Backbone:
């Protein structure tokens, strides 16, 4: 039995057609009777142009089996900041003595804030829509997407080092941070306790990306710049253990040669999508296009 939900990520250089291919994939899945959610993670939010509808945080039903939603980065950044403030306040109940409010004001300018917010949104979506068969993510251009995927793994390294440092501090001061009641050990150091919880959470998030339920679909065009960036994307993801499952070459002219792509990505499944003069706009037009191309589009 297929585990739910299956997560499909469409990634690649800006302008190669991630939004179009993710929309086509979602429509194909929905037409096949699969309960599908299409999520726009790209700040440009091109799905509203493709479907000619406004979308937002609340998913909008397109047909019986397809819903579309946009991730509002500002909403999730604000939520992340509020959650961080709440956790710090709980950990340091004597915050007024250190005037921590000044530090809360600085948090909004923290590097990597957008990636953390997107990760928070991703976690919410996966759990909120766990009854769906497929969740399709239309991702942001390369730089933000790579930071998004690598964030759990980088954060884990940082948190584990912080935990080691906190433990060494306690050892130097000869402070006992745990008490034992029967066979149960209770962590008295709230900072160590929180670090342990965060490590568990980010480990769980990282495992999402390494799961068999994930398919990374790399979209590119048949040009040198697109191919070069696609190679770098594969290398960066491979370094953190994430494998690209499918390659989509988009906007191909009739009988166009793709030997350069075949040479680099020949060991992977490659799908070729023909160029559509004027583009694809509207749900009906997306369905018409799908009827014209191979029935095994993306083989989902």
Residues:
């Amino acid at each position: 039995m297929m585990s739910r939900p299956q997560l499909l990520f469409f990634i690649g250089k800006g302008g190669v057609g991630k939004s179009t291919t993710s929309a086509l994939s979602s429509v194909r899945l929905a037409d096949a009777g699969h309960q599908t959610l299409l999520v726009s993670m790209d700040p440009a939010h091109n799905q509203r142009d493709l479907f000619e509808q406004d979308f937002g945080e609340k998913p909008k039903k397109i047909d019986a089996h397809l819903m579309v939603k946009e991730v509002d980065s500002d909403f999730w950044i604000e939520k992340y900041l509020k959650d961080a403030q709440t956790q710090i306040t709980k950990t340091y109940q004597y915050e007024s003595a250190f005037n921590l409010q000044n530090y809360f004001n600085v948090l909004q300018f923290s590097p990597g804030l957008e990636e953390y917010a997107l990760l928070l949104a991703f976690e919410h979506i996966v759990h909120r829509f766990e009854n769906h068969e497929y969740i399709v993510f239309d991702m942001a251009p390369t730089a933000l997407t790579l930071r998004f995927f690598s964030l759990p793994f980088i954060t884990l390294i940082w948190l584990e080092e912080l935990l080691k440092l906190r433990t060494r501090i306690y050892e130097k001061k000869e402070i006992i941070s745990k008490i034992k009641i029967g066979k149960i050990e209770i962590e008295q150091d709230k900072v160590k306790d929180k670090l342990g919880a965060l490590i568990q959470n980010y480990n769980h998030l990282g495992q999402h990306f390494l799961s068999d339920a994930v398919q990374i679909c790399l979209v590119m065009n048949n040009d040198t710049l697109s191919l070069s960036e696609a190679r770098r994307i594969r290398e960066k993801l491979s370094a953190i253990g994430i494998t690209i499952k499918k390659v989509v070459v988009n906007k191909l002219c009739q009988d166009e040669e793709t030997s350069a792509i075949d040479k680099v990505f020949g060991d992977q499944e490659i799908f070729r999508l023909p160029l559509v003069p004027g583009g694809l706009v509207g749900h009906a037009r997306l369905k018409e296009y799908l009827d014209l191309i191979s029935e095994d589009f993306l083989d989902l």
User: Anything to note?
Assistant: Strands lie at 6-12, 36-40, 60-63, 66-70, 134-138, 178-181, 184-187, 214-220, 244-252, 269-274.
